[in-house]
Amino acid sequence: MLKALIFDVDGTLAETEDLHRQGFNRAFQALDLPWHWSPEFYAELLKVMGGKERLVHYIERFHPEEAEALKARMPEIHDLKTRFYGELAQSGGLSLRPGVRRLVEQARDGGVRLAVATTTSRPNIDLLLRLNFPDGAQPFAVIAAGDEAAQKKPAPDIFALAVHRLGIDPSEAIAFEDSAAGIRSALAAGLPVLATRSRYTKSHRLDGAFSAVSDLGEPGAPHEHLQGHVWPDGVVTLDALRTWHAGHLRGAA
Question: N or C: which end of the chain has fewer CB within 10 A?
Fold first, then answer.
């Protein structure tokens, strides 16, 4: 039986990555750091999972002679970036991706639990959910985030933590991801993965996902099928997920 859907956040629930990029650039400017991350450059940096880890990677690779001093400033830089990200998000730039709200509501009404497994920090998740579910009926039963996992994706830690908190077997859930590292993380945790390609993961190989689509689709606005399982009418629904999952379990038996 399908008991849970586990979602990544950045690029999966919402197209957040460019807001993170803008937040970093605003922080750099405010702190008089002569850095600017273009969309193209940030796409490369996103191969490193986690905002703090991304910043360390950038400092070590592009400013090694100042690395020690710059790393000491990391909490200041990242905290300021988080503040600017929040301001950008609250200005209207943080809506859910196509099909997400519909599928979340179907799962909630259908008795399927919802969870988050992400490398982003908890305040960013709380903001996303507060802005998109303002009535207080936050639908996610479990949130595994940021520094709660010993290792970032592609290690399985964060998905394994979400599964543990749900109290289920990995075979009883489906993971939703948008990146190659995220897919590897979910698979390593024993979860089948449905991939929805995002703005910043257009170049990623989505190997391992049992289905890959442009987004979850909406009635009258179907998604683009990329590879693997094909969804009726170009829309991922709870009923269609249950049908696939039941067949998947029979095939694995």
Answer: C
